[in-house]
Amino acid sequence: MGLLEKENVREALLWKPLPEKPGYVKCNLCHRRCVIAPGAFGVCGVRKNIDGKLYTLVYGLLTAANVDPIEKKPLMHYRPGSYVFSVSTVGCNFFCKFCQNWEISQSRLEKGLYGQYISPKRSVELAIRNGADGISYTYNEPTVFYEYMLDTAKLAREKGLFNTMVTNGYMTPEALEELAPYMDAATVDFKGGANSDFYKNYMGVPDPKPIFETLKAMKEHNIFIEVTNLVVPNVGDYVEDIRALARWVVDNLGPETPFHLLRFYPHYKMTEQPPTDVKTLEKLAKVAKDEGLHYVYIGNVWGHPLENTYCPNCGYTVVERQGFYILKWNLDEDNKCPKCSANINIIGTYERKKRDLIFW
To answer: H or E segment at 174?
Structure first.
């Protein structure tokens, strides 16, 4: 079977030929906008120029298909207590030296293509059979399997499932425009407080500025947004960077936007770094709150008080959590604080279902 006959190989979306460079193509999926020579891959390692056309080689070639609590994404304020069928492929358009999923995200096709083909229809069927409420495109950067995400999201919406993605935010405006009608919520991951030197030196990304444009476009499209920031000790834990990021979120997305500070653990090419000190996370959380954010969380610290949701008006604990699980739900039926009646920015009402996994 030839490469183009394989079910996981499809002509890509969002590219154009370059008449001034015969045989070359330009990919317009992410802000790198790669110019790709004949026979070469884009930076993501999964989109290839074959005879002057751009193809995705990971359409439905899944490396993971799991049912997760939505809080794992993390999405604390969108459909709390629900389950999402989480899928991934290989590849990424970033080169994070600290990536926790580097086995799949940093895999390049030159080193071997792997995964199990599952069609969009089958993914939706599996999500429903396993009691999932939605589908999450996650683990590696979903932008690089855009065609599969788009097709699956359309089918999921038809079947009454919601769609979420965990993304680095480097998707182009034209890519988001086509996807937005089918995407309900997104976790947008920053690292190092969006410090441009950190992005260049530790992530191989020339400029984080496009991420802010993506966030504003998501808000315009009514996609529910939660923002995370990985705090890498010594090199990505500067107070002024977190202050600036928090201030931008308040000014552009609103103070009610959930904001997560994630603890770093040694991974991949940064195993010499220690885990983030919890006191550092607490200090940065206070900085974010002082800038006006209502809902600031600390992630990857199981059992920390800042896993809970507190009423921004009176401070009452309206949702108590441990890790990915809700222990107490204290909101009234309208998602208002029962003590002071303040509105809490949470979409949906908590109902943790019991499930029996069926899977394949």
So the answer is: helix 173-179
